[in-house]
Amino acid sequence: MNPLRLLLVLACSSGLLHAQAVIEGHVPLPKSRTAPVMNKRYEIVAKGGVLSTNPPLAVVYLEGSFPAPAAIPVAQMVQKDLTFVPSLLPVQVGTKVEFPNLDDTYHNIFSYSAAKRFDLGRYRPDEKPVPSQVFDVAGLVTLHCDIHEHMRALILVLATPYFVMTDTEGNFRLSGLPAGRYTLKAWIDSKTTLERPVELKGDGTLQVDFP
Amino acid sequence: MRIIRRIFFCLTAGASAVLAADDLLEEVDQALTVSAAHDDVRARLSGSLELEGYEFPRPAPGLIDSAGHELFNPRLVLFLDTQVGGHVYAFAQARVDRGFDPASDALRMRLDEYALRLTPGTSGHFNVQVGKFATAVGNWVPRHGAWDNPFVGAPLLYENPTGIWDAEPAPSRNVLLQWAHVRPGLPARITAVEKYLRIPIIWGPSYTTGLAVSGALDRFRYALEVKNAALSSRPDTWNDLGDDWRHPTFSGRLGYAPDERWNLGLSASTGTYLRPEAAPLPAPGRGFGDYREEVLGQDVSFAWHHLQVWTELYEVRFSNPAVGHAGTFAYYTEVKYKLTPQLSGAVRWNQQVFGTIPDATGATGWGRDVWRIDLAPGYRFTAHTQLKLQYSLLHDDGGPRVYTHTLASQFVLRF
């Protein structure tokens, strides 16, 4: 086969030459949260005290009927300086999320959310393999640490491969989208998800501002 | 079983409400944290609502203060944690309940802890703390709160009254043996209240008043504290500065953690066990310093994945010139395992044995040796609510009965 033709066939089969639309826009973000206060009452060694806070972000995603990923996607949420980084992680259904411990102390991540109940137990910084969970049900998963009660994080498990996080101003750009009619959703917090119907055609860029 | 059944019924009926309230509790948590100066000054109000029920034979075991067979003990605990920059931390704990130990009294409020901690530098080598706060001795204190404690109650050594009184020193060996229930002859006038005159070797988390320094040097940790009362002192005295610090208690712990799994500790403490009101009572020529409680402790903990194990061993000696040294050895081993993300089980073996003091018959043990096994399943409904049950079997050959069965349940809602 002609090498150029072979390249064309491979590109088409992988979707590279499918029409890829783009949606740009803006989402109103919730106000910043107060940094947590660490409970150090019975910790005789009180190092630090300044905990970083991530600015609030939103997740914008395209809702529709999409095939499951061919391979298991992998994402990471680390524990560093006694906080989760990132504190909000959107993933596609079926994603394996690893939880490496980058602190010099134990962590014990758990969730009792309906979308995923698990408890990793106490694990060390050099734990191998890195503790992980596969998130196979769509929904919001709230993470806690059984040792450090101030630690909180969210994993938003989505039934779509098309999602993006906004920047700290609320701007987003969702690219590589297939043509068709969909619902565009903006997850802002556990109680607020905004949505807009969208119709994507070819390679165009659609501007969608919420609300 | 009525109280235990009632708590179960209420929880079953309210289970859906509890689950629905979880989102609300997350919001409450955010709402109760405030900050100023660009988050450099932050304060958080948190706490727990605890509903405890006990079923026991009469007389009530341990430090339970009730004339009946059952006891309902609700408790509201409020914590205030404040962080100022990276070097100043303050906390306070207030409780509304029926007594520091389970009691049938009316509800009342107490300020159990308040402390200010300064941490110069960022290394954690040195911290200084002043106020009223739990002891650094041993390894039970960090998990004594209802949410972290796998059991409803404390280990035996924290709640088993010995024959030592803190209101007055035993004037003779024979009297000490009577106070310890080893010999008959306890005066009738005090039979009804004598349990509350006796003290254990360590009374709960010992929220006494004073100053502590602590820190970490590589894998070693140290803590030294000067407090107003001995480890065995009762809660009523933890605020008491009546003797102007003439008889402070010195305690300390040296810890070593070879890795995150293991934590080993050596503790020691010395201080007078008599309360200030007992000042006129020591024999002529004797002072408070002759009535000391001396404690040597070892503790080991291990944690790996879903397994946690804790052990504490204490050798304790109460001095009394009229009696000599009355020694006792107490220990426990506690194991907790998470069976599922929400269901856990814990078992604890406790034992306390008493040394002998010389008397007319040669030597007699100055207390009754006891052992107790505690079994405690626990279930966390949500990240804010959990239910624990505890069954305890106490063996005491010389007691009012050889075996004492105690049931307890505790529902905890934390916010």
Descriptive overview:
- The complex is a heterodimer of chains A (211) and B (415).
- In chain A, 5% of the residues lie in helices and 43% in strands.
- By secondary structure, chain A is mainly β.
- In chain A, the strands form 5 sheets. Chain A has a 5-stranded mixed beta sheet, with no helix packed on it.
- Chain B is mostly beta strands and 415 residues long.
- Chain B has a single domain, classed as Porin.
- In chain B, 9% of the residues lie in helices and 47% in strands.
- In chain B, a hairpin with a 2-residue loop joins strand 7 and strand 8 (220-227).
- Chain B is globular and about 70 Å long.
- The two termini of chain B are 29 Å apart.
- The model of chain B has no long low-confidence stretch (mean pLDDT 91).
- Chains A and B meet through strand 8 and strand 9 of A and helix 1, strand 1, strand 2, strand 3 and strand 4 of B.
- State the assembly state of the protein chains: heterodimer
* Count of strand segments of chain B: 19
String of helices and strands of chain A = HEEEEEEEEEEEEEEEEE
What is the H level of CATH, i.e. the homologous superfamily of the largest domain in chain A? Cupredoxins -  blue copper proteins
What topology emerges from the helices and strands here?
The complex is a heterodimer of chains A (211) and B (415).
Chain A: H1 3-13, E1 21-26, E2 59-63, E3 74-76, E4 78-80, E5 83-85, E6 88-92, E7 95-98, E8 109-113, E9 116-119, E10 132-135, E11 139-145, E12 152-158, E13 163-165, E14 171-177, E15 180-189, E16 192-200, E17 205-209
Chain B: H1 2-31, E1 33-36, E2 41-55, E3 70-84, E4 88-97, E5 108-118, E6 127-133, H2 173-179, E7 208-217, E8 220-227, E9 249-256, E10 262-272, E11 292-304, E12 307-320, E13 324-338, E14 343-354, E15 356-359, E16 362-365, E17 370-380, E18 385-396, E19 403-414
Antiparallel strand pairs in B: 1-2, 2-3, 2-19, 3-4, 4-5, 5-6, 6-7, 7-8, 8-9, 9-10, 10-11, 11-12, 12-13, 13-14, 14-17, 15-16, 17-18, 18-19
